[in-house]
Amino acid sequence: MPPSRDEDLDWLYGRSPRPPGPEPTRVLPPAADDPSAAPPTPSWDRPAAPPPDPRRVDPGWGRTPRTPPPGRRPQGPAGPPPAPPTAPGGRPPRRRHPVRNAVRALALLVALALAWLVGVPAYAWSQVGRVDDAPAGERPGDQPGQTFLLVGSDSREGLTAAERKRLGTGKTEGQRTDTIMLLHVPPGGEPALVSIPRDSFVDIPGHGENKINAAFAFGGAPLLEQTVEQSTGLRVDGYLEIGFGGFVNVIDALGGIEMCLPKAIEDRDSHLDLPKGCQELDGTTALGYVRMRKADPRGDLGRVERQREMLAAVAGEAASPATVLNPVRYWRLSTASARSVRLGEDTSLWQVGTLALAMRTVAAGGGLTLTVPVSDPDASTSAGSAVLWDEKEAAAMFSDLARGDTSDLQQYVR
């Protein structure tokens, strides 16, 4: 007698042991729509299904997956994506970011350029010579703005006989000033570059009346600075001096300087034979051009104008992009300038920067260039032929500078 359905369920849920012996075949009634259908096999007699592959999900829940024909990509999920490649050491490789890398490279180049632009002048600054320029005696009080004394020394010291011949400096011993200028930078307004003729007849403390360039021969920078302060009433805040050889080196470091001559110049004493018009002058020729006096009908007054013109041109060329963006020229100019100039003991790097910016403004035509008002350019004095100032106009001009006001100085331009 076959077991009842309840007995099957008791065995299935563990309420009674499985009946001993083989399970008799149970005959189920055929389906209504398939008279020939065979009865299903009991669940405990069916073959166990293979465990699912953990690497893939079988959408058929136990159905045998179809094997795609050769050359065809299997359809449907094919398991997790392959593991990404790893760099040596088991770390994943870094992802490349072209834009970010380009920005970093550009930032590095900018940093290196700034380091070069700042580092070269800083190195040159450490090589600059110093000179004691502190004047003796009572000095003018502090004044608005800053006033710099610029001196071109005609000392032959350090020049060989061959260099003296090439530069046409002669054999005069000792030192004198070939160029004397005052650069005044007011708190507001245009800077003013004022030439003081080297043959100006003034009182030199302790030495009586003489040409102003003799003060440099008598007592060097301190006495010259004292004489200038006493004669002008201006307090000198910074001092810069350059000699013959230094001037030539700076011009050559720039690759020459362009000057436009209103007429041809031929002067044997200065070794000059120059045509009319714009032309490039090397250091030696430029020195002869600014020192020439005998071939100039205006004498010392014509020379100070050429000196201002040359100084402004040098300042403009030194600050031009062609110099700043050229590493070779930038290095040569910085090192040549450091070897060529001497600064006052108390002249700071900040003051030199102020001076350079003011000279650049003058070179660009944004400043004033003038000479001390003169009443007689060829007066007969105890020191020989000398230049006499117009005392009234000179006093008025220096009074404006002492107040830091350059707005009315145009009237003194000659």
Automatic annotation (TrEMBL):
Pro residues bias: start-end ranges: 37-52, 66-91
Family statement drawn from the similarity comment of this UniProt entry: Belongs to the LytR/CpsA/Psr (LCP) family.
Keyword Transmembrane: yes
Designated name of the protein: LCP family protein required for cell wall assembly
Organism: Microlunatus capsulatus
Record InterPro entries: LytR/CpsA/Psr_CW_biosynth, LytR_CpsA_psr
Transmembrane segments: 105-125
Any Pfam family: LytR_cpsA_psr
Domain Cell envelope-related transcriptional attenuator: 176-319
Region of interest (Disordered), ranges: 1-97
Keyword DNA damage recorded: no
Keywords: Membrane, Transmembrane, Transmembrane helix
